[in-house]
Amino acid sequence: MKAQPHTPMSLRYWGVRGSIPSPSPDTTHFGGNTSCIEMRVGNEILILDCGSGLRALGASLNDEFKTRGFNATMLISHTHWDHIQGLPFFAPAYAERNHLRIFSQAGSGTRIQKALNNQMEPMHFPVRFGDLPGVAGLDELPEEGMEFGPVSIRAMNLNHPGGCAGFRFEGGGACVAYLPDHEPYHSCTLPKKPTAEQQNDQARLVEFVRDCDVLILDTQYDEAEYPKRVGWGHGCIADSVATAVAADVRELVCFHHDPSHFDTRIGQMITRGQQLAREAESRLTVRAAREGDQWCPSAKRVATNRAAVAAR
Ligand SMILES: [Zn+2]
Ligand SMILES: [Zn+2]
User: Fold this and answer.
1) Crossing angle of the two packed helices 237-246 and 263-279, in degrees rounded to 10
2) Which ligand ends up closest to the CA of 162?
3) What is the pLDDT of residue 147?
4) Which ligand has the shortest distance to the CA of 49?
5) Which of 154, 168, 173, 255 shows the smallest number of beta carbons within 10 Å?
6) Which residues lie at CB < 5 A from ion ligand 1?
7) Nearest-CA neighbor of 253 among 220, 222, 289?
8) CA 49 to ligand 1 center in whole angstroms
9) For residue 285, which of 296, 300, 303 has the smallest C-alpha distance?
């Protein structure tokens, strides 16, 4: 898709943590809410996953639009709790004036509908999913992808227990990939050689994220931890850097921080990632996703809006 300079893409991080919300004096820098990212391209509002960060995004959208209704598209990567648990607390879903469409990867709609219904059964929550007046329904993305206004979206299967979709977005002068939960097909921290199948799967993934401005990638573990967590469905800093370098990505944003990782630990992982990127003689920058950070391609840097976070 051609760049649209008058409708630049922007991102804002509302939840960056994996597995479970982790509020603590030791997680205030990067944040403790689970997966939720707001993407804007022109008037198009896209919401990537509905973790606990979605609650504050809902308050922000209500502040912005007040009594005017708005349209938004919500993409759900998979139905592990940390990616859907914010939906019952998303205030705009309770207003009929809003039009919220939920999309999942092709083939996963029935499963996702069931999980969204289940988490709002009366034993868990007093309002049912089907009674949310602002939610217009759930659809599947077509296999070949889809265009939402100026943004084109494609999805691919990731390596995660129960499945997870990764998404690639192009439009507004930028290309962003969001791969929230993914375990490397083969890890460079393990002594075993990759099989031909693992090599093929990794090559497909590299092509999917090739040349992205921003790759938001599951990087839950450091190199000492990952060998003890093989099969848990999450990534490791060394493998994330290797994937980003192979795909000639500009910026790797490490995502889905481990709930036990304090700010200092995440900082150490990023320092290590930057070192690996330098050793690979790549142009890659490495940073950690952080609640409140905003990104747009024209700014060429991440701006931090901590005031918005503090005002919740
Ligand atoms: Zn997750
Ligand atoms: Zn998951």
Assistant:
1) 40
2) 2
3) 95
4) 1
5) 154
6) 18, 80, 82, 181
7) 289
8) 10
9) 300
Closest CA to 12 of 288, 293, 265: 293
CA distance 144 to 166: 14
In this predicted model, what pLDDT tens digit does every residue of 214-227 receive, in sequence order? 999 999 999 999 99
Does the structure show a pLDDT above 50 at 47? yes
Please list, in sequence order, all residues whose beta carbon lies within 8 angstroms of the beta carbon of residue 195, skipping any fewer than 6 positions away: 186
Mean pLDDT, range 292-312, rounded to an integer: 61
C-alpha span between 253 and 286 (Å, rounded): 6
- Per residue in 110-142, pLDDT (tens digit) is 999 999 999 999 999 999 999 999 999 999 999
Residues whose CB falls within 8 Å of the CB of residue 203, separated by 6 or more in sequence, listed in order: none
Q: Which helix (H) or strand (E) is 286 found in, with range?
A: strand 285-288
Least distant ligand from the CA of 164 = 2
Q: Which structure tokens are listed for 183? A: 């375990």
Distance of CA 4 from the midpoint of ligand 1 (Å): 32
The dihedrals phi and psi of 183, each to the nearest 5 degrees, come to -100, 135
Residue 288 C-alpha to ligand 1 middle, in angstroms?
A: 16
CA of 97 to the centre of ligand 1 (A): 31
Q: How far apart are CA 202 and CA 260, in angstroms?
A: 28
Residue 297: the pLDDT is: 73
Ligand in closest contact with the CA of 160: 2
Take residue 44 and report the two structure tokens written for it. 């198009």
Taking residues 168-175, report their average pLDDT.
94
Q: How far is the CA of 87 from the centre of ligand 1 (A)?
A: 15
CB count, 10 Å around CB of 254?
A: 26
Gap between the Cα atoms of 158 and 301, Å rounded: 28
Amino acid at 224: A
At 286 the pLDDT is 98
